[in-house]
Design goal:
alpha+beta, 510 residues, elongated, 13 helices, 5-stranded antiparallel beta sheet, single chain
């Protein structure tokens, strides 16, 4: 048994050497979304904010017929896609990649060759309800099994300091097997989600292979090692199992992949260890008959609970970013529900610690712990739901990474290439490359930019542009408060007695 523990611990060290990074966001594409090209391009390039692994790239023609594209080559943050000969009209490139945090990311880029045409667009959809429910169930099984199984084994070896009685042993053993079921089920469903495949595909090797190449496979591998270590019933193997749970949950996912990594990964690790200790102790405490064990746990428990609270607060600040996001985003609403349950759970734990434990009221203590177990199940169910709700932090980063919007305004006496970066509502910078009607340099004295959004009831916003170099002028420190269609106008003073005005609509995506 000790030799087996040594092998498992060695595997744990190998797995722990791997790491994951941030959530992937498409920064730009070439051709750009919505562009009209004079001739068909030979290839398509997608640029992300981090290296990604392509899963499926599909080209959809104007008649709605799709073609899976091969020869896709990822180069760090860029993915190059060779294109077949394209007919005149509108086309959609539908892409699906897996980001470093193990989550599939998909989208579509629409472009036209020659001139736009009507088309039936097929774009990636959200996770189907049946698959989402299955993923949630397997995640919940994994969490319950890890926390109750590994935590229960740790309690028996390090707090009770004696082999568990039959009821406790059976519950811990069942929890460990549940964790294994959750790990295997989560692996297969991860592959289905990566490939956007139906349930029957689980009978083939394709989704399993895809899942094994994702970063979430590291989490599941470490979780499996934790379960196997806990099954040995060896004192130090169980301690390493507790560490493995922390490493597993810190190796992938939204929270651990957030910046700064030197804070978020240790915070997730500490949070997971404290949670495993606390949850794993609940059932053994309910079945406990030893006063010394109860008092020992009561002395130790405040430290893990304090670490649980501190690490949770740090992660919440990073993920939520602003109080408004708590009610304004699905992630925030799940967080609010979770914190409500956690507050009740902490209140019950305090009551147990300060009132029931000194009186050694076993019957009242067992009833109280039963309520805690129900609340823990609710909390873990909410945590599993976070798999489908990107945090406000990730949404903000995606907004900040929005590709610039380009508009060409052509007049009789002048023209301007206008670029708004980033291409979304909020703080932006506007660059203008100004030329005369024959594409020559236009020696302007001043340039004034005015933006109006009548539909939103926003009166004109005027800014003087700053001359950068040659034909380039720039406006910084400008905030466009809402998305939608804005009317952009550039007043170009050429001489003291001559001014040229260029106007065009400018659409900011929601």
């Amino acid at each position: 048994m000790r030799r087996l523990s040594g092998i498992i611990i060695a595997l744990l060290a190998v797995c722990a050497a791997s790491s994951a990074f941030a959530h992937a966001t498409l920064l730009k594409s070439d051709p750009a979304d919505g562009s009209v090209l004079p001739a068909a391009p030979a290839q398509f390039t997608l640029t992300f904010n981090e290296p990604v692994s392509p899963i499926a790239i599909r080209l959809i023609a104007g008649d709605g017929k799709g073609t899976d594209l091969g020869g896709v080559e990822p180069h760090n943050e860029e993915v190059s896609v060779p294109l077949p000969p394209l007919e005149r009209g509108t086309h959609t490139l539908s892409w699906r990649v897996v980001s470093a945090d193990g989550h599939p990311v998909g989208g579509s880029v629409v472009f036209a060759v020659g001139a736009p045409s009507s088309m039936a667009v097929s774009t990636p959809s959200a996770t189907p309800t049946g698959r989402a429910v299955a993923i949630w169930i397997m995640r919940l099984a994994l969490y319950v099994g890890l926390f109750a199984g590994v935590g229960g084994a740790f309690f028996s070896e390090w707090i009770a300091r004696q082999p568990p009685q039959a009821p406790t042993h059976n519950v811990v053993a069942a929890a460990l097997w549940l964790a294994l079921v959750g790990a295997v089920g989560s692996l297969g469903l991860q592959g289905l989600d990566l490939l956007d495949a139906p349930f029957p595909a689980l009978l083939t090797v394709t989704p399993w292979t895809a899942a094994l190449h994702s970063t979430y496979a590291l989490t599941l591998a470490l979780a499996t090692i934790a379960v196997l270590l806990a099954m040995t019933s060896d004192r130090w193997s169980v301690a390493f199992a507790l560490v493995a749970v922390g490493l597993a949950l810190a190796s992938s996912g939204h929270a651990s992949d957030a910046q700064p990594q030197y804070l978020t990964r240790p915070a997730v690790f500490i949070h997971s260890l404290a949670l495993t200790f606390w949850i794993g102790s609940l059932w053994p405490l309910a079945a406990n008959r030893s006063l010394s064990t109860l008092q020992r746990f009561s002395r130790i428990a405040p430290l893990p609970i304090a670490l649980l609270i501190l690490s949770g607060v740090a992660l919440a600040v990073i993920q939520i970013r602003s109080p408004a996001a708590i009610v304004g985003t699905p992630y925030g609403r799940v967080f609010a529900a979770k914190m409500t349950a956690v507050a009740v759970l902490l209140a019950i734990a305090a009551w147990n610690r300060w009132r029931l434990t000194p009186r050694h009221d076993q019957r009242a203590l067992r009833r109280s712990i039963a309520v805690e177990l129900v609340l823990v199940a609710v909390i873990l169910g909410l945590v599993a739901a976070w798999r489908f709700t990107p945090p406000p932090r990730a949404l903000a980063l995606a907004a900040e990474a929005a590709p610039p919007i380009h508009v060409h305004i052509h007049g009789e006496k002048a023209m301007a290439d206008v670029s708004v970066a980033p291409g979304r509502a909020g703080p932006v910078s506007i660059s203008l490359a100004i030329q005369d009607g024959d594409f020559g340099a236009l020696d302007a004295k001043t340039v004034t930019v005015t933006l109006t959004n009548p539909a939103a009831g926003i009166e004109p916003i005027r800014r003087e542009a700053r001359h950068i170099d040659g034909v380039v002028w720039r406006v910084d420190g400008l905030t466009l408060p809402v998305s939608g269609t804005w009317q952009a106008k550039a007043d170009i003073l050429v001489t003291e007695f001559s001014q040229v005005t260029l106007e065009a609509p400018l659409t900011l995506p929601p």
